[in-house]
């Protein structure tokens, strides 16, 4: 509990390479790593469809928040000409603005009643930022692993506030709450053709997500028959997608991309050659730390308030306006060049005329 904490609006702080070094050695960094590790370990051998997952009253409240956000999403369908552009749809900004306007009210209804905090010292000022930033960037109409990380930070805040009990709620956080968050994000990606944040999402895994691969590998780490190479069997992927995050991600890729996995996701193709899921899980966890938490282009957008505290020595607070941050080239020559959403590219590819010698 943070009974004596004065809550503030979270801001971005990590700007320089020196900031990044301080961040990597900090207790807050360890806190995020340990939180994700605990979530991942809790779902080893568990399926999304398992009926013995205990969902507490407080976890149900978070599921209700996601339902509230889905209602907002459904109020803003795409009405513009889908064929006018293969990039993100401007109606996403209407959804984003509506969410931003109502997020504090939603949190007040669903969360504040669960806590011991008053309107005079209200944690919603911090929770709202993490939750709002979990659904993409309004200006660029894109989404990536940094936004996904904000949702994890939202859950971490709820743990730090005493609203979630990590010992009892971990499985539900992954298999119910995070799963429903991914389902909602897939709907947003499909409807608004959200562009991947960066040239290739998380470096060849998925245009948008990282953590489902870690959680999925953890789920499968004790499986007797399914192997990493099973991702190349489309029937197996479709059969097990409702039960395992990893197969859900592969199924999503198969639905929106026409070329083989080796062509558009060579890293996933290479990982499929690993003999055991436990080795995949181990590698994914290292990759999460190295390529998400320890990369300046990602963590320069990390927010710090008084629930998730900024390490001492990091640069002074910067505005939350993305345009004020320096641009760090991390994605190669395509950095700064718009990359079409997987759905947009797929639709345009369907209309492309075949070459006469195909």
UniProtKB/TrEMBL annotation:
Swiss-Prot/TrEMBL catalytic activity: [protein]-peptidylproline (omega=180) = [protein]-peptidylproline (omega=0)
Keywords from the UniProt entry: Cytoplasm, Isomerase, Rotamase
Principal location listed in the UniProt entry: cytoplasm
Pfam families in UniProt: PTPA (PF03095)
An annotated Gene Ontology molecular function: protein tyrosine phosphatase activator activity
EC id: 5.2.1.8
Any single Gene Ontology cellular-component annotation: nucleus
Enzyme class: isomerase
Protein's GO biological process: mitotic spindle organization; response to osmotic stress
Cell location: Cytoplasm
Superkingdom of origin organism: Eukaryota
Biological role stated in the UniProt entry: PPIases accelerate the folding of proteins. It catalyzes the cis-trans isomerization of proline imidic peptide bonds in oligopeptides.
Family designation: Belongs to the PTPA-type PPIase family.
Stated name of the protein: Serine/threonine-protein phosphatase 2A activator
